[in-house]
Input
Amino acid sequence: MTRNEFEWNGIESASELSQRLNLSFSNLSLLTRALTHRSYVNENPKALEDNERLEFLGDAVLDFIVGAWAYNRFPEMQEGELTKVRSALVRNDHLASFSRQLKLSRALRLGRGEFTSGGHDRDTLLGSLFEAFVGALYLDAGLGVVEAFVRPMLDASQKYILDELNDPKSRFQEWAQSEKLGTPQYITISSSGPDHAKEFEVEVRLKGIAYGTGRGTSKNAAAHNAAQAALDALGKS
Output
């Protein structure tokens, strides 16, 4: 097998991944299935099943574990806030970050086309991979083992998630969606100053209507301030 073929099929076996993560899978075929994308099955008839059913199961397991974690971690939070925390943590891009932390893509089996197009680093694929991995671990070792494995990652995500939920852009988008106004657009309407000390002015709009304007030394900071101005104007600060 050439180096490219070896990488195309994953550089770690299921057994090697299990050892690296200090997990004792009694049924390695479950883990192998979790690491098998449908593109690989399409090109390799001997691979009998892809990871989509395990992805479905892992999604349900994660919803429960993350919900229980949030309930116990934030005893002062009401149902609506707990729902936001859970939704943020099980969002695909966040699950993809868990996959990257664990380097799961090193053992991922992809078809040639999916591999060459960068599938190993695509959020949608990596988020689904983490769900499939959780599904396999649940079937092999039970809920307690999955919870113990996932909890440190949830703990480490706590500050990031709370900061994100308190971010004015997130809160303004949530309000806009609740009012069925679509996704906010942040438009840079001016910039001034020398390159090393520029100031930007950004306007946030919904369906072409301006809701707030903000200034900042970066476009992101200006957008942040524009969203806060919009919330202030709406009495949603």
